[in-house]
Amino acid sequence: MKVIIPENISEITLYQYQQYEKLIGRQDLTDKEMIYRMVKIFTGLPFNQITEMQYKDLEEIVSLIKIALETECKFETTFKINGVEFGFIPNFDDIKAKEYFDLSEYNDKSEELNKLMAILYRPIKSKDVWGNYEIVDYQGTNEWAEVMKQTPLNIVNGALGFFLNLSKELQDYIQKYSKREAPQKEQQHESIIKNGDGLQLSGN
Which of 3, 76, 90, 2 is nearest to 39 (CA)? Predict the structure, then answer.
């Protein structure tokens, strides 16, 4: 029996990873059942074939899968699925409000990762000889969320690492800006109270 095992994280799809995350979150399975289901997710073999395997072979498959899942990934700005080339958002300075709020909603929850990827990566509509590109406007995640389940996991992990670092930098900047602005606002507030600026007092 020939078994195709993902030996590299690029051979694992986002959908397989999402199924795996659901599996390891279950508390109702024995170790044996967990292993059977894990092998089924990543090889596509039916249970009746998995249960007939020698234990040492099963153990090796699980080991190879875990190694593949732990592979470090670099950030890739573009990739293809079924002939369609997708590009990462080229400039976050130009991000629209609806993109920002949807990114905040989906964040890095594993069950929502395909939706997150459908925001971060969109079909490239034009590209120049230097590799600069434009992506289609964001119209929500409905059109591409299912397609993104086929994304190789190395693309997902690389993008998440870049995106989360970017989010942290933005959050740190906002916090520093807020701390810097707070004393100025407090001084303005005290000045207004002291001088009565902007206050309209009425009395009998």
Answer: 3
Residue type, 64: L
Whole-number Cα distances in Å, 12 to 130, 158, 194: 30, 14, 65
Could you give the C-alpha distances from 136 to 87, 88, 142, 190, in angstroms and in order? Answer: 9, 11, 14, 49
Q: Closest Cα partner for 86 from 39, 122, 59?
A: 122
Q: Which residue reads 């990462």 in tokens?
A: 88
User: Residue 100 and residue 138: Cα distance in Å, rounded?
Assistant: 11
Edge-to-edge order in the sheet of strand 121-127: 78-81, 84-88, 121-127, 133-135
**pLDDT for residue 193 is more than 50:** no
pLDDT tens digits for range 16-35 = 999 999 998 888 999 889 99
Asked whether the beta carbons of 74 and 158 are under 8 A apart, the reply is yes
